[in-house]
Each structure stands twice: as C-alpha cells, then as structure tokens.
Amino acid sequence: MLVHEDREYLLEPGAEFGTDLGVIEVPEDVAAGDTVETHLGTVFEVRELRGPDLFDHLERTGAPMMPRDIGLVLGLTGVSRGDRVLDAGTGTGILAAHLGRVDADVTSYEIDPEFAEVARENMRIAGVDDRVEVRTGDLTAHLDALAADDPLHVLTLDTGDAPAVVERAGALLVSGGYVAVYSPFVEGTREAVRAAREAGLVEIETRETIQREMDFSDRGSRPSTGGVGHTGYLVIARAP
Ligand SMILES: C[S@@+](CC[C@H](N)C(=O)[O-])C[C@H]1O[C@@H](n2cnc3c(N)ncnc32)[C@H](O)[C@@H]1O
Hints:
This protein is an alpha/beta fold. 28% of the residues lie in helices and 34% in strands. It has two domains: 2-46, no CATH class; 53-238, Rossmann fold (3-Layer(aba) Sandwich), CATH 3.40.50.150. Strands 9-8-7-10-11-15-12 form a seven-stranded mixed β-sheet, sandwiched between helices. The longest helix has 14 residues, at 113-126.
C-alpha cells in the first residue's frame, strides 16, 4: 500500500497510476519500508497491508463485516492457528481474510459466481489465498458432504439463510466448537437462536453490536452526536 499524508493507494508491483500529485510507477521489487516518488516529486511510503486496510481498500461486493464486529467474532470464538473454519457467505471476504490472517484453515462459500471471483482476488491481495479457499456455491446444498469431512472448530455465518445451517451445526462442529451468526435484523437473529436451541447447541448468547465514538474538543469530551452506531446482531453458540 502506498501512503502520502491522507492518501492511500493499493497498487500492485509494476503498476502505473496517475494522481493529481503525479504519476506513480511502482517498481516490480517494491517492499514495505521503501519510498516511491511520483514524476512530480511527491514521496509515497510503502506500507504492508494490515487488517483494517482490507476493509478500506478491497473491492466490495456483499456488504462487508465491520472491523469491530470481526473483533467480536475472533474474540468470542477464540479462532486461532490451525482451526478448521467454515464461513458463508464470502461476500467481499473481509471476515474470511481476517480468519486467514490468524492462520486458520478457512473454507468459505459464496453463492454468486462473480462475487466469488472477486473474493478470490481479494484473498490473494490480503495474502491469505493459501489458507482461505473460496468455493462457489450455496452452502446449504453442501451440508451433507461437509458433515462427512473432519469436524470444524468454528462456523461463521453472514447470510439470510443462516438458520438452516445452524440447524445442522451439531453435525459439523467438534465438541466445544463455536458457531457465530451475524445478522443485520432482529428477525434473522431470532430465527438463528431458535435454530441453535433446536440443534441442541449450548451457551447461546446474543448481542447487539453498538459502538459510540468519542469526541474530544476544547469545550469538553463526550460521545459523538453522530448517532447510535448499530451494525447488527451477533449470536454465538457452542456444540455440546
Ligand atoms: C453480507 S455478505 C457477507 C460479507 C462477508 N461476511 C464479509 O465480511 O465480507 C453475504 C454474502 O452471502 C452470500 N450468500 C447468501 N446466501 C448464501 C448461501 N446460502 N451460500 C453461500 N453464499 C451465500 C451473498 O451472495 C453475499 O455475498
């Protein structure tokens, strides 16, 4: 990633890119820590791409999960190196990329073939394409085959039909494994909780994810008046 003051450009080695600060020619052997000068003399720093940069710069398809909600998924499931993780739908792949960045072994399903293509490219840019396999298809059509595979440590769902997958979660997860369902609406969340109960999952907890930013000014400090930062609901449950 190339950075100058508040400008950030995600450019590949060898790329040529025109800006009002001049044309950037990225050397083939570019590395983090280098600087690259435009033909008008503006200096850009080359930085390694980090997690939050993915949200800002990867090509978007399905509405990506926000970094704060990803933090909850990582923290509340304890996903870590070597875990087998099943994710759907891939969408932009922001959650899938973060799962790959903690070195989990991720299979992610995306029903839309064009979205899946973009997500594969996003995984390559994020540097996790060796750990995150994006499969094109409807996850609900593959549950029988997946239940016959090695059991999963974590199942992450961000689709309208997540409850149909939660109903089968017991057959997919190791004992103590986690399912995380993210939903923007109460109705989908309620259905996910019903499915988790019917599936015999335990430790079922639901949270609304709200965050307030703080404003600090000369007059004083207070939560931002920019509105309540609701993004969605997160159901976490565990296989017995
Ligand atoms: C909200 S987006 C997921 C965003 C993703 N979590 C991220 O962080 O970028 C939901 C995606 O799920 C896909 N989808 C919906 N139902 C699906 C299913 N049954 N199987 C696979 N993908 C599905 C949609 O096409 C869409 O791209």
